[in-house]
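Bench notes, bay 3.
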Amino acid sequence: MGTMGLHRIKLLLLFTFTGVCTAQNDITLSVFTVTSKSMTVQWSGHSGASSYKITATPKNSPEQPVFAQFSGNTVMGSVNSLSPNTVYTMQLEAMDNALNVLSSAETVETTAPDVPSIDQAYSKTSDSITVEFARVSGATSYILRAESKTGDFFLETAVTDSPGTVVGLQPYTDYILSVMSVNSGGRSQPSYPIEARTVVIAPKLNTSSASNDSILVTWPPVEHAILYKLIMIREGSSTRLVLNTTDTTVKFDNLESGTSYCIKAMAWDAEGRIGDDLTVCQITRPQTPDVTHVQVTPGRSLGIAVYWMMVQGATSYMGLTSNGQNCSTKDSYCYILPQECGQNHSVYVIAYNEAGPSSPSQPAAYITYPCPTENIWVEEPTAGNCSVVWENVPLVDYYVAFIKRDDGTEKSCNTTKTTCQFFCMCGYTYLTSVFPYNQAGTSLFAHVLNYTTIPCCPQDVTVKLVSTETLEVMWSPVKGAELYETTAAHTNNVLHCNDTSPVCALSDLSCNTPYSVTVTPCSELRGCNNTCTPHKHETAPCAPEILDMTQTTNSTYRVLITTPNSPSTNYTITATGRYDKYLCQSINNSCEFTQLPCGSIYEVIAVATTAVGKSLPGYSKTLETGPCCPSTVNVTQVTQAMTNVTWSPGTGARSYIATLRSPRGEAKCHTLDSHCLMGCITCGTNYSVYMDAISSTGHKSLCQYQGFSTSACCPTGVKLYRRTNNSLRVYWRSSSPQAYNHTVELYGTGANYTCFAAAGSMYCDIQEGTCGDVYRVVVAPVEKYGVKVTFCLPRTYSVPCPGSNAGMVISRRRRSVK
């Protein structure tokens, strides 16, 4: 703590409490200031206290407590002779005249660290001083104090360790410096002060480059400086040039052009201390560039392109012409626009960078394009022999004439004269232009002259039939033609079509008639070209008409038509149904459709075709084919004399006639349904199956299917005999013309019996198990594959036991015994 701090503590110790507090039993204690050797505390007064005692007891230390005593009117006091960086318990006791303690309070506080000592202080920059000091135990940080000798400057700076630096100072100025240690308790007393002076400032350099190999350095004098030191380093190099001088102007010569040099400057004071350093970089002016090429630029606007070698260190370039035009760029070329035709000038280039311009390059001469021809015309003394003629242009080495036809064909003529011949065809427009040339090139543009010859005859005339009575004539436009006349002649009739478009429709002509069509181009200047070749074309054939349609077979139909055209005409008859289409072609008046689907309705149309095209379709007629036969027919025998016939529906059929036919007769039924029940069927007979499908309009289709055979006939004259050996014999007569195996079945109340008889046999024996029983007897033929006929009726017989009318069998059904 400085002198001002010590005076402040003394004043506080003399301060006394003059107020009166009543009914105050407790006091409060707080630490006011802390140093490394003392603590100053402040407390609240206690009524009735005649004196106060402060005791400072070290914690965790064997040292003895330290105490101080104060009068009853004092509220602040200090305890001295304490140890640095030590934790103390501060106790305050308020006592009466008998030294009895009325009230007490205590607090814990740490003394500041010990006072550090300064080893040295020095200045490296003009606004700072660095202080090196001895570290103090227990200090957590330090405070550097700098004061001017005149007392008008005071600055404290907190640092964490030695050395520490005070900044914000004035150059070449003396300062008094001290250091204080700091911990949680506070700061120590200031150390013994030391004096130090800041160094001088760096020279403020001003640099410039007056040429591409020198740099001039100047600076105002630095106060208190007696010597200056300059160090120059070229960019990209480690070589240094060191110069000591007392002057304030230095010029560096023999430098590289367009190169950056960095110059560091420092000043020395009278004590031999070097001050701040300042570095500035300066580039030398660029080297003079060399112009390598000057070219007149092509384009709509005449200009020149200047090319040069780029030089080191240049950031931009400027090209200047002898007539005062210029261009600026960062590249190795630039364009100067515009230029006048037929001029001869020169151009030079200057390089620039931050230091300034280089010396101008050597001028390079150039010449511009020649001016275009002002007047050209075309002469055609005879048809097809043309010449383009123009006026002479000064400063021209030669001319190139271009003759371009409107179809893209181009011809050029290179000459030193003012005329050029070319062949000019009829019907074309020629674009003629003349370009003068010199050593710089040709003019940027040329006047174009249009010259049109007489229109030619169209070579790609197409005559197309667009309808039976209309021809469409088309051709490519002919340059120069303003009107086209189209004629179509047949016998004495001539039709005219005059139009400006390359198309013409000749309508209302006769069908199946040849016409001669001619297209004639015309213009106001040249008139019409009447030498064009006519083109022949025929109109479409006349439409045929259907005369009659007849059915020749179930699926074949013949169509009769008219033939109003030439014998070479083809006729196509189309039958169009709902889902399908059939074609029939012929060169005469009849045509047959085969394999037409049944049960369909078709619209029939006839069209004539020649090499020219097709006719209009004739009037259509409707053709109805016969109904379709059912795809499946099933015949099922219901009884021995009755069958059930079923079939799938036939397309187009409304009613059906089913027929079963055999040599022994036939059965037939007519119905709207898809089934029919027929009687009068003979057993054991092969039948042919026929079906008539009839449409709603009466069309009939005859259908035949696989034959049907009825089952074998049931035997007749079935009888049952009892034999002497207690066996039973069943006898019958066969009704079928063929021999079949037979099965015999007896169903009794006591037992059932079955036996089989081979083909040709008419009886079967059965060994009876019991007598006096009643039997139901069924005899049925067995057909192919072992199928038994199920239509045979049973017969019932009563068989008595032996001794009672032996050999007698009584039939219960009269109809069973014949």
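Next record in the batch:
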Amino acid sequence: LALKGKYDPIKSLEGDEDLQFLLDGGNLVKIRSSSWKKPRFYRLQDDCKTLWHESKKTLRPSRTFTLDDIESVRKGRQSEGLKKHTDASVEELCFSIFFKGSKKNLDLMAASDVEATRWVKALDKVLNNMRNLSHQKKSEHWIINCMRKADKNADNKMTLKELKHFLRQINVEVDDTYAEEIFKKCDTSNSDSLEDSEIKHFYDMLTHREEIDVIYGQYSKTEGQMSASDLLNFLLNEQREQATPEDAYKLIEKYEVDEIAKQKKRMTKDGFLMYLHHDDGSILNPAHKPVYQDMSQPLNHYYISSSHNTYLMEDQVKGPSSTEAYIRALMKSCRCVELDCWDGDNGEPVIYHGYTMTSKVLFREVIQAIKDYAFKVSVTEEETPDFISSMFFSFQTSEYPVILSLENHCTLEQQKLMAHYLISILGEALLSKPLGYTIPTNFPSPEELKGKFLIKGKRLNKLDAFFNKNNTIEDDSVSEEDEAADFKENKQNGQKKSKIKLAKQLSDIVIYCKSVHFSGFEHARDNQDFYEMSSFKESKAFNLADTSATAFCHHNMDKLSRIYPAGSRTNSSNYNPVPMWNVGCQIVALNFQTPSKEMHLNQGRFLPNGFCGYILKPEFQRSLSSQFNPNTLTKGPWLKRKTFHVMVVSGQQLPKINKEKHKSIVDPLVRVEVCGVPADNASKETHYIDNNGFNPTWNESFKFVIHVPELALVRFVVEDYDSTSQNDLIGHYCLPLTSVQNGYRHVPLLTKRGDVICSAGLFVHLMLIDAK
């Protein structure tokens, strides 16, 4: 109670009628199937972080889940379950709660449209409020929540036994003697329990950060505080920023919490810590957070965030296909999705992985889901000020174009229906003819294609046909070399080449992404138009990147290339995307459903520039005069040798890995990786800290030599050390080296699936300087 007023995560919503609506709760119908539709009472618990609902099971009469687990709340029959098990007439009564990770979504139905809207609005408001908290506030709330859990009898006091339980909850193992020592120091009333100001004293002792004291003490030269001049000295010498006195004044005005200090234009230690926990103190350069790159270059001058077999939720052989997989990929700002199209029952084309037991989803339902979510933005930059939440918020999608990569196995009649659905559902957003009034000679830009869908697939003729009135081409056969054939060959040693009849209606809406067979770089240069692109399975692409890197780079200066995983990756594993980016490949398609290092690198590559799914390639990958080869590194504009100094100082509130084991405490270590051209790839790690995930301190320094900084990614990995088995991942974070800020910075941490760990982070010191 002594802390609740100061650290309540939804204090800003105090008295809000939507919050009170959730606290009061109400009856909803939970829907699992056409025959399982049961009333349940739901309400938000007093901690304003946990949703409680009744259960009819004898052993578990009630259940809860935390709001932190929610990815999104969607009004209407948005889930496949609601579409399947409810009638269209109850559309406005339904809503779904979608969770992070693999947890199944919760489908609900209210008594009225007004009530359903109220639930969705109220949940969205509380979720947005929580996500908009600063990292420091999230950290404070996490600690207070652990204190509440440790207070077993809910008397707002803390006994020695409860204090030990609390320390284990926050991932700290201390011996009994030390725990008693802390307890006695705080128990000034000698009552054998901590309460009110004693708990506040214990909290202050616990969250005290000695490393911040040292840094602040070094620069606070004005009566124990930082003057604007002192702060400017810190910004110039430690953070290596091009700062001015005006910048220092602005930071004091923005982050100082003490009004008297603010009036004196000074920064207290609390204000300094606030600065370090926000955008300006983040490892990610805040200037790179919004769209900051030139978006008027031709489309092929960008890396494009791309998904492989987007419809799959799990493996490639017997896993489910779902519209939800498309929604999740698009919500991660994926800008190229794949649709494997086959003849379905009742004349309706379906999407699934051919020659396998994966389930099928209707083509028209997928197109509708893509239309609904491709350019959906539910929050604005201003609504998400914190550097963590704003870059990984569930509903952050992009306004830049989406490419629909069609793998077509349908008969003519179902192809015509595919074309009909694409045209009727996507409407004016579908690019159905070249831009301009003359035959194009180059790609349009992402800026020119905002809000547009591009179809990638086979085409019966050239784009010249749009400007040739005598063109009368009809349905015809085309060669179809695709992933299904590769997969079939891998499994059955079948024939790769096949011919399919291509419907003119489908052919006509393929504009800037015409699929063609690759017959060599010289052949492509001499015979292919700029809009004719090839897909490469990973083995072919990696071989070309090894043996013909410069030619591959030149090919990608004029055309688009798509890379996809080998058919042998039946478990939906991924290949390393970095070597493909090194040779300028734009559409490097990965299995988005599989959490892995490769997806972490993809998330890091597309983190800057508004997380919009497009990253402008370096100039040396766009200029035809370039002779760049990532494997040999001859002299050229790409060679900018840098020394990257990294000191891993400390960690904060690292989560427990094995939450089932009450006494399990992590032994954390940090690995710093650089991924780029072969000469730059390196990895170094700290020692591990015994039994402390709450505030481990390493103070270990590393040095990396970087040759091509514009292609380098930096990845921080925190693991739980285990001497007898493989280390467990605690958290990670990845970003381009060119977006790293120098100086003392906080690094957020993400789960394996890429979700933010609200309270956790690293504190590091970074310095990127010209190599001697």
